[in-house]
Design a protein that fits this description.
This protein is α/β, with parallel strands linked by helices. 35% of the residues lie in helices and 20% in strands. Helix 11 (340-350) packs parallel to helix 12 (386-400).
Length: 543
């Protein structure tokens, strides 16, 4: 039986010590995390390469609040890992000769379908088109990876996101989506720049019919100036076309994949657009269901000045939201593991392990917003006592674990929710009954009907700050819930795969072929990508 511990084994409170890495040589070194001028800082010293300092969160109060919700998961076992030696199938990685076990189940798995791309973005951590080789698993290899994810223990993976490069350029993308659905993934997502969905409606429709649930759409702003600066080409018309094509699906009587906008935020570049992006999402909430901001992670070498001026933290996001929209204050934001007691309760109620959201409390932060027909926005925590609900549901789950009649505890959940909702603080026209019916329906088997009967627009606004070698915390790596799977069925935490030790390079080099060799074998596909990368002169960014 799945069990989520409420004990957090890493040091809590400030100051504290953790393990990090040297940005220059990658060796594990000790780091200090402490408060300075209301901010949370990390400092570390490499015997060979000297002193490094970086800000982690810019609001110490919110940092400590997030830490209160920390919860360790149940670990992760992967019997299909082809590199297993002996009988140990505990998912782990090795950094600087130190074995690091992974403590959280796979909340969502990333499967890189290719390192090819129809764009060439300066800030891309995947470095598509620059490696001199092509990494592109076959359909059969991807199928094996998906089977491995569905075979994980003690909790099977239920959500997969296809990534890259640009995953939609894989020649069997539609077949892969259909295969994922056939294997039982409840959530099938794609992280994409949107070019294929914008200009090939039939391709989008085929993806939807194959089972695509969510489009994680690269989205940096609402005009071409920002795209020229960040992506090197005009992209605004493309983003609008993706949204229009999703509406076209609805007009044809089909369900559209949900769109989640994914803006990479760089301080001083587009942090002034945080509020406008959320407002745009509400304006298009018929197809856009959320915004997941990603503060930029610095890959490669950067100067101290570049680090200080460009660093954008999760609490900077909270600050920009309040100043640019007035929708939220910092009291309205919570870390991901605040919902861990819900999955714990569901696991005991249903008698089988459910995905537990036990990521490190400083990996991500989120809030839910409700908007009425007059445009007024109310955050979920304004009328729900989130702290009480999370704390008391955890207690109920503890009592429920060994109870004989577990279904009786469903009524305790409704009673608890009722006691945590303050109807006087709800948006005008919303009632406690309608809201509890919504929550009960979403948590049960009738979520679509519950949502259809609810008249308020809902928007999940979140931030996920992936690490780089300057702010690297090994404790975050151990508790990561976003895992990559590779052709040999190994699992890697997101931040270890893309930064720090950067296992991506090792894996892609191992399972790839030289570019020129690939082009000879796949001339038609190569010509399509080459054509896409020839950007008209008036769409190019600054040289």
């Amino acid at each position: 039986m799945t069990r989520t511990s409420v004990d957090y084994t890493a040091a809590t409170g400030l100051p504290k010590k953790t393990k990090s890495i040297c940005p220059e040589c990658g060796k594990i070194i000790e780091a200090n995390i402490f408060e300075k001028d209301g901010m949370v800082m990390m400092e570390k010293d490499c015997p060979e390469h000297g002193h490094y300092s970086d800000k982690i969160w810019t609001d110490v109060e919110l940092y400590l609040k997030a830490e209160r919700y920390a919860a360790d998961g149940v670990g992760l076992h992967n019997a299909m890992n082809e590199t297993i030696q002996g009988n140990d199938d505990t998912a782990s990685i090795v950094i600087d000769n130190e074995k690091i076990d992974m403590l959280s189940c796979t909340m969502i798995a990333n499967v890189d379908l290719t390192n090819r791309c129809n764009m060439h973005c300066p800030i891309c951590f995947a470095n598509a088109n620059d490696q001199g080789y092509v990494y592109e698993p076959t359909f059969e290899e991807v199928h094996k990876m998906l089977v491995a994810l569905r075979s994980e223990q003690p909790i099977k993976n239920t959500a997969v996101q296809f990534a890259g490069g640009e995953p939609t350029v894989h020649p069997r993308f539609i077949d892969i989506v259909a295969d994922a659905k056939k294997l039982g993934f409840a959530q099938v997502q794609v992280a994409t720049n949107g070019l294929e969905f914008a200009y090939h409606y039939d391709f989008l429709k085929a993806a939807k019919m194959a089972g695509l649930n969510t489009i994680y759409l690269q989205f940096d702003g609402m005009d071409d100036e920002i795209y020229l600066r960040v992506r090197g080409r005009k992209m605004w018309a493309n983003k609008q076309k993706v949204i229009a094509n999703c509406r076209k699906l609805i007009e044809e009587g089909l369900h559209s994949p949900s769109i989640v906008l994914v803006p990479v935020i760089i301080n001083g570049v587009n942090d002034n657009l945080v509020g406008d992006i959320v407002k745009f999402a509400f304006e298009n909430s018929d197809v856009i269901r959320g915004v997941n901001f990603q503060p930029v992670a610095f890959t490669g070498r950067v100067t101290k000045e570049e680090l200080e001026t460009g660093r954008f933290t999760l609490t900077d996001l909270v600050d920009r939201m309040e100043k640019q929209t007035g929708y939220t204050t910092k009291d309205d934001w919570y870390p991901v593991p605040v919902v861990a007691p819900i999955s714990k309760f569901a696991s005991f109620l249903l008698g089988k392990g459910k995905v537990t959201f036990t990521t490190h409390p400083h990996c991500g932060i989120a809030t839910y917003l409700f908007q009425d027909d007059k445009g007024n926005v109310t955050p979920f925590p304004r009328f729900v006592d989130v702290d009480k609900f999370s704390r008391e549901l955890n207690k109920i789950s503890d009592k429920m674990e060994n109870a004989r009649f577990k279904k009786l505890y469903a009524m305790k959940l409704i009673k608890l929710l009722n006691s945590c909702v303050d109807e006087s603080k709800m948006p005008e026209g919303m009632t406690k009954k309608s809201f509890i019916n919504l929550v009960s329906g979403v948590m049960g088997s009738d979520s679509k009907k519950a949502l259809a009967n609810f008249s308020w627009r809902m928007m999940l606004v979140a931030g996920m700050h992936f690490q780089d070698s300057y702010n690297y915390d090994i404790e975050r790596v151990r508790r990561c819930g976003v895992h990559y799977i590779t052709p040999d069925c190994r699992l890697y935490p997101f931040c270890a795969y893309n930064s720090g030790p950067e296992f991506r390079r090792e894996i892609e080099a191992k399972f790839s072929i030289p570019v020129e060799e690939w082009k000879k074998l796949h001339k038609e596909e190569a010509d399509k990508i080459d054509a896409a990368l020839i950007v008209p002169i008036d769409e190019r960014g600054p040289e």
